[in-house]
UniProtKB/TrEMBL annotation:
Active site: 197, 213
Family in the record: Belongs to the YkuD family.
Annotated pathway: Cell wall biogenesis; peptidoglycan biosynthesis
Descriptive protein name: L,D-TPase catalytic domain-containing protein
Organism of derivation: Sulfurospirillum barnesii (strain ATCC 700032 / DSM 10660 / SES-3)
Entries under Gene3D superfamilies matching the protein: L,D-transpeptidase catalytic domain-like
Endpoints of the signal sequence: 1-19
Amino acid sequence: MRYFLFLSACVVVMYAATAEDIYRIYKTKGIHAVEDFLKKEFESEEPVKSKEIKTPIEVKVPAKEPKVAVVKTKVPTEKELISKEFWLKQIRGMDIAYGYYEALDSLIVCEKDKKHCEVYKNSNDNGLELVKSHDVIMGKEGDKVKRGDLKTPVGVYEITKRFKPTDPFYGPLAFSLSYPNLFDVLRGKNGSGIWIHGMPLDGKDRDDLSKGCVVMDNDAIKILDSEINAQSTMTIIGESKVPKLSKETVATLLSEVYKWQRAWKVNDITTYLNYYSNDFKRADGSGKTQFAVSKKQIFSRKETKTIVFENLNIAPYPTMDNRKLFKIAYDQTYKSPSFASKGRKELYVELVGNKMSIVAEK
């Protein structure tokens, strides 16, 4: 213990005596002599005042936050929503040639006669932007009507699933489409299993064996997979040229949708029913007469309703007879004292002049 104290003391008094001096005293006179020596050293000398070194104090200045432009999202008024002029301002500068989409990542536009598909990315600010074009193989001429007719359907379809086919005949990858949709079913069309898929893995030619599907080279379908979000992609298929939309048409449809909604909110049954075609059918197959009876009964209660539309999409709907049809889909929240619901809704509408006419509803 004393040896430890001795070494510690050595360090403390290095300024007064050298290590050699202390070691010599220890060897000749012992540890007690060292203690006496150190005691005398501390008593005889004033403590050496070490020069204080002032360390500059670091003043931390809070970093300035970058100035970010705060964009205030203004909720449109009911008056604005029903105004065509308001919507023309909203879509100014957007590419809406193949539709207006609030809730869609990707769009595929196919033309059967050209054996050609275009892939678009969608953004809420700029609308549609072309990503790439692909050559494809499609089914026989004409719209699909029944199972086994080997025709590719004409219409608007969502991708419902991305998967790897178990049969190598369909290539390395496939995307199933939502054929038949409501409009197809109500017109008596049937069949199923319409895919976008690749070529046989064994390399066999299948130019005449589309069976109604959209067929791509295997390299191309892998590229397509990287270009789209399969969970948010719509496909428009036309027999020939898919009709392009003008901003006037899109603004008209948007204002008409919200005028129809307003009539519904305020229980204006006459205006509300005037938005339905005489050929209108619901998903259960019932026509306008039966539908009107049900709605008149509900509207007669004069209930206060909350009806909110969100994530609204409008797509041109190609037809063989070139009707001005559109598919409109949106998330609807409905609440009244007697009933409440929330879900995705679909309308198939025709534009007659500047008036929206609903031909099918789900």
